[in-house]
Structures are given as structure tokens and as C-alpha cells.
Amino acid sequence: MEKRGSPRAVLLSIRDYVRLAVPEPEVLRILGQESKRKGTSRLGAKQVDQIIKAARKSKRR
User: Fold this and answer.
1) d(Cα 11, Cα 8) in Å, to the nearest integer?
2) pTM of the model
3) How many domains does the chain have?
């Protein structure tokens, strides 16, 4: 946003602001890349819950 030709403010989404304010740790970046490679980044909450439930059930046996 400008006032008489000089910049006064920059509009950013909250997500962009957080990314600029707090850089992502390298570990999280690596985990995200691995998740995308394996296809697990596309799992929904219900699918994740089902996987956890099945893992816990098999662990008990």
C-alpha cells in the first residue's frame, strides 16, 4: 500500500507472515518432503485415525 508514491505497508496473509517470522526447521522440511514422496501428505484425518487405530490394535496382540 502506498501513500503519495512511498510504501507504507505490505499486505500478507497470516500464513505468509508466519513463514517469514519463523522459518521452518530443517527437520520439518525433510519430513514434509518424505511425506509427499510416500503419498502420505494426502491422507485425511479419518484415514490417519484408522491407521493409528489399526496399529494400536495389532500392537496389543
Assistant:
1) 10
2) 0.42
3) 1
